Automatic annotation (TrEMBL), chain A:
<comment type="pathway">
    <text>Protein modification; protein sumoylation.</text>
</comment>
<comment type="similarity">
    <text>Belongs to the ubiquitin-activating E1 family.</text>
</comment>
<dbReference type="GO" id="GO:0005737">
    <property type="term" value="C:cytoplasm"/>
</dbReference>
<dbReference type="Pfam" id="PF10585">
    <property type="entry name" value="UBA_E1_SCCH"/>
</dbReference>
<dbReference type="Pfam" id="PF00899">
    <property type="entry name" value="ThiF"/>
</dbReference>
<keyword id="KW-0547">Nucleotide-binding</keyword>
<dbReference type="InterPro" id="IPR023318">
    <property type="entry name" value="Ub_act_enz_dom_a_sf"/>
</dbReference>
<dbReference type="GO" id="GO:0031510">
    <property type="term" value="C:SUMO activating enzyme complex"/>
</dbReference>
<dbReference type="InterPro" id="IPR019572">
    <property type="entry name" value="UBA_E1_SCCH"/>
</dbReference>
From TrEMBL, chain B:
<comment type="subunit">
    <text>Heterodimer of SAE1A or SAE1B and SAE2. The complex binds SUMO proteins via SAE2.</text>
</comment>
<dbReference type="InterPro" id="IPR045886">
    <property type="entry name" value="ThiF/MoeB/HesA"/>
</dbReference>
<comment type="pathway">
    <text>Protein modification; protein sumoylation.</text>
</comment>
<keyword id="KW-0539">Nucleus</keyword>
<dbReference type="GO" id="GO:0031510">
    <property type="term" value="C:SUMO activating enzyme complex"/>
</dbReference>
<feature type="domain" description="THIF-type NAD/FAD binding fold">
    <location>
        <begin position="34"/>
        <end position="331"/>
    </location>
</feature>
<keyword id="KW-0007">Acetylation</keyword>
<keyword id="KW-0833">Ubl conjugation pathway</keyword>
<dbReference type="Pfam" id="PF00899">
    <property type="entry name" value="ThiF"/>
</dbReference>
Length: 517, 351
């Protein structure tokens, strides 16, 4: 069959770029190799972890800690030794992967797990005019889409749900869901105790009359010389679960239509110490496997602990951080693979939940929420990888009338478990792939260029290193390679209001902004 | 006896006990390994999966995909059967065997696949059974909860399905066929009850599956109008292979005239318009023969894996009873092809 031969030829000649060698990536690399692809480049910055092994089947226990891209390549070469696979253990956002780099490929295939990298690859593909096959899975759900400049919508033509954020006061004062308690425990308490001291932190509640309780609070997180680690932990406990809740309660307005929380003090929950007073302090050796659960004999991560158990975990985890991981304190950020950190956050979130009458959760559940863990199974990834290759082959054959976006469903819809739909047309007002101007309403005599760059160009348009032009005049750009005087000039511009720039931005001005290449 | 030993074998390997429920345990190792999927289907489902024994007969690319999926998911054991020696054709869509194994004349396809599958998950017991499944004692089937046949001749499919049905315990039967860019899955769970979860409330559900033979005996005119064309086309090809005594996929486009004659006969006998079975589709199926399109193997192996996991864990609506995928239109379609209930009070799970 002529068409089959031409298809085989197109596949053989193709040079493809895969971004991501994880759940979808492993399946995809295998299916590409079996399908006859011979020149595959693969980028992934990650190393292999134990929790990957249930689905990322190219990896073994012995590979834990090694580069995903490299191990995946070696594994596939075992059954297809004569094809070329070029691995990059690197971040796709690294400057080496520029437009020129992308231009060498016939198609780019994404198996990514985050919005930021997806947006980045989308923009590079548009700039390099290389079609992109995009994919994603959670649990039994998945989807595959094709993005070809000018023919179908780009990845950013439709607004994407951004990671959920919560109002600060919900987190600091009025939590109503367990996730609020997790965010408080992770982003405020954990960060305050173990993170960078110079970072701003909203942990302390301000009292209703506006008088800051800083006298009390600033000292409380410092460990006094005569305090042992458990005394310190008990003091922190009373402050964050007792005192802070009292302060919040003082603000009567807040509780008119809400259930009042119950301040919790350590003496009511656990009057006796869990460690001997003045126990011999062990040296601060950093062991990776330090766990409050194991030192307290709690085994099952699926169990929901009582308030007393959570309190014990809280005290013990805090003590272990001080005693065993002294050097980490001050530069920790929450990591879902850090057992002690997960234990501390679970316990703290549960104690807070108990205070606010919110149901408690197991460590397993808390870890999932705190780590934003995506549910993943091998079968969905395998199906999605198969669908990606089907679309990739259409791209190589230039068969764009048959491009489809396909949904993998958990429950059939109109008898279908795999549902193809025709791709959407490009969104004419998409700020990423169209030339249509965006309208910005702003007071040009009060807004500084800095606000425009930070709030609009970087935050809203997601351009991390933009170049901004007014006609043929450069107003601003970001880069490490700028001449000193040029950089100084841009810095000066940043603090000017828009109307007072060297080329003033006023009503009706058209600015052009693009990623700096 | 053999089964008991085997079970002991499994439990002894579960080193440290961490999760205790109903006297059963998942080890710390399992909890860490299966973390992401336990978040999808829960601890109970994982435990049921680890007590499930699966047999796979016929190791083409689709079956290999399926094996990979359920070994990763953590079934109790997987037994594979395929005594063929390794040829280049057999490796077309197989990622378990290195190409130089073609020279290895001493080992069967199943033996070579077994070695690789074991590496995917040391906690799953993978073994090889030699021989012809249709010739094995009926009791052999008692060892399994799920039997999957791939690329199996029509008569053997019926025979194996019936053997599964005659056992006292339920042995789920699945068949899968991949011809080029078209695929079919058939499922027979016999009488199957499960809990359906609909927006926070659970309700008991009962499905009655027909055997393969009973399903394909449903008169075509009784079927809903929009049944997948692949269903009819594959029945015609099946009939052709049976008449000519060929193995599944042992076809080429030169068989088209005979197949078109069979199509006319079948359609006349079933009073179905021949346009329901397009010539182009038959031609594609004949040309593809037994050659599999690897992306389709991944899709069929994925759907099949998911269905087995659903059925043994009791989580989610299981597929009833045919699934079709054609790369040409990209639709993955479920067809329920069942005879009407036989008893007056017979519930066949239809809404």
């Amino acid at each position: 069959m002529a068409s089959l031969d031409s298809q085989t030829e197109a596949i053989k000649r193709a040079k493809v770029l895969m971004v991501g060698a994880g759940g979808i990536g492993c399946e995809l690399l295998k299916t590409l190799a079996l399908s006859g692809f011979q020149d595959i480049h693969i980028i992934d910055m990650d190393t292999i972890e134990v929790s990957n092994l249930n689905r990322q089947f190219l990896f073994r226990q012995t590979h834990v800690g090694q580069s995903k891209a490299k191990v995946a390549r070696d594994a596939v070469l075992k059954f297809r030794p004569h094809i070329n696979i070029t691995p990059y253990h690197a971040n796709v956002k690294d400057p080496e992967f520029n437009v020129e780099f992308f231009k060498q490929f016939n198609v780019v295939l994404n198996g990514l797990d985050n919005l930021d990298a997806r947006r980045h690859v989308n923009r590079l593909c548009l700039a390099a005019e290389v079609p992109l096959v995009e994919s994603g899975t959670t649990g039994f759900l998945g989807q595959v889409t094709v993005h070809a400049k000018g023919k179908t919508e780009c990845y950013e033509c439709q607004p994407k749900p951004t990671p959920k954020t919560y109002p600060v006061c919900t987190i600091t004062s009025t939590p109503s869901k367990f996730v609020h308690c997790i965010v408080w425990a992770k982003d405020l308490l954990f960060a305050k105790l173990f993170g960078d001291k110079n970072q701003g932190n909203d942990l302390n509640v301000r009292s209703s009359d506006g008088a800051d309780s800083s006298k009390h609070t600033e000292d409380v997180f410092e460990r006094n010389l005569d305090e042992d680690s458990e005394q310190y932990a008990r003091k922190i406990y009373d402050h964050v679960f007792g005192y802070n809740t009292e302060v919040a309660l003082a603000n009567e307005e807040t509780w008119k239509n809400r259930n009042r929380p119950r301040p919790i003090y350590i003496s009511d929950v656990l009057p006796d110490r869990i460690t001997k007073k003045n126990a011999k302090v062990e040296n601060g050796s950093t062991e990776s496997a330090v766990s409050a659960m194991s030192s307290l004999g709690l085994k099952n991560p699926q169990d929901v602990w009582s308030l007393v158990e959570n309190t014990k975990i809280f005290l013990e985890a805090l003590r272990l951080f001080i005693v065993k991981r002294t050097e980490d304190i001050g530069n920790l950020t929450f990591d879902k693979d850090d057992q002690l950190a997960v234990e501390f956050v679970t316990a703290a979130a549960n104690i807070r939940a108990s205070s606010f009458g919110i149901p408690l959760h197991s460590l397993f559940e808390a870890k999932g929420i705190a780590g934003n863990i995506v549910h993943a199974v091998a079968t969905t990834n395998a199906i999605i990888a198969g669908l990606i290759v089907i679309e990739a082959i259409k791209v190589l054959r230039n068969d764009f009338h048959n491009y489809r976006m396909t949904y993998c469903l958990e429950h059939p819809s109109r008898k279908m478990l795999l549902m193809p739909v025709e791709p959407f047309e490009p969104n004419k007002s998409c700020y990423v792939c169209s030339e249509t101007p965006l309208l910005l309403e702003v007071n040009t005599s009060t807004s500084k260029l800095r606000d425009f760059v930070e709030k609009i160009v970087k935050n809203k348009l997601g351009m991390s290193s933009p170049l901004i032009m007014h006609g043929s005049n450069l107003i601003f750009e970001v880069g490490d390679d700028l001449e000193e005087d040029v950089a100084a000039n841009y810095a000066l511009n940043l603090d000017k209001v828009l109307a007072e720039l060297p080329t003033p931005v006023t009503n009706g001005t058209m600015l052009k902004t693009q990623r700096r290449i | 006896m053999e089964r008991a030993n085997h079970h002991q074998n499994l439990t002894s390997r579960f080193s440290r006990l961490q999760i205790q429920m109903d006297g059963e345990e998942l080890s710390a190792q399992e909890t860490a390994l299966y973390d992401r999927q336990i978040r999808v289907w829960g601890v109970d489902a994982q435990k049921r999966l680890s007590k499930t024994h699966v047999l796979v007969n016929g190791l083409n690319g689709t079956a290999v995909e399926f094996c990979k999926n359920i070994v990763l998911a953590g079934v109790g054991s997987l037994t594979i059967m395929d005594d063929r020696i390794v040829t280049e054709d057999a490796l077309n869509a197989n990622f378990l065997i290195p190409p130089d194994a073609v020279k290895d004349e001493g080992s069967s396809l199943a033996e070579l696949c077994c070695d690789s599958l074991k590496e995917f998950n040391p906690m799953v017991h993978v073994s090889v059974e030699r021989g012809d499944l249709t010739q094995l004692d009926d009791e052999f089937f008692d060892k399994f909860d799920v039997v999957v046949v791939s690329c199996c001749p029509f008569n053997n499919k019926k025979l194996i399905n019936d053997k599964c049905r005659k056992r006292q315990k339920r042995v789920g039967f699945y068949s899968v066929d991949c011809r080029g860019s078209c695929g079919e899955i058939f499922v027979d769970l016999q009488d199957y009850s499960y809990e359906q979860k609909k927006t926070d409330c659970k309700s008991g559900c009962h499905l009655q599956y027909p055997s393969f033979e009973a399903a394909i005996s449903v008169p075509w005119r009784d079927l809903p109008r929009k049944v997948s064309k692949l269903y009819f086309a594959l029945r015609v090809i099946e009939k052709f292979e049976l008449c000519e005594g060929r193995n599944p996929g042992d076809t080429s486009t030169s068989d088209l005239p005979v197949v078109l004659k069979l199509r006319k006969e079948s359609c006349d006998a079933q009073s179905l318009n021949e346009t329901h079975i397009p010539t182009g589709l038959l031609e594609r199926l004949l040309a593809a023969g037994a050659k599999e399109h690897p992306p389709l193997c991944a899709i069929l192996g994925g759907i099949l894996g998911q269905e087995v996991i659903k059925a043994v864990s009791g989580k989610g609506d299981p597929l009833k009873n045919f699934f079709y995928f054609d790369v040409a239109d990209g639709k993955g379609v479920i067809e329920d092809i069942s005879p009407p209930p036989t008893n007056a009070d017979g519930t066949n799970g239809q809404p």
